[in-house]
Predict the structure.
Amino acid sequence: MRKIDKLGTSEREKVLPNIEDLHILLEEMEGRVGQLKNECPTEWSPAKKEIDDGAVDMRGKYEETTEMITEDEKKRYVRVKDSAGNVFVCPIDALRDPSELTEEEADMCVDDGTAGRHPSNIDIVDP
């Protein structure tokens, strides 16, 4: 599964413009490379500079997008109960089934009371 597919709707909408920009940059670079293949110019320094600049732009946009996705992944937590009725706050991507918390998964969680003392650090979403 792609990282973007794991994001909620609002998080996905935040990164979609960046992803569209990446697609545009890629198309521009493919077009330039295709043009070089067809025309085969003797002097292609200007085109090489455009391709190099495009690669730098693409890398920067990719890193920015990846950082946005990673930030959103880190912020997403869900409140769950174990079989004894204890309430925990867990990273949403750490759970196989939010309705059934295993002991192994509980190790990656904090109890609800601790999470309540630090509410600005934890963004809890509905499962």
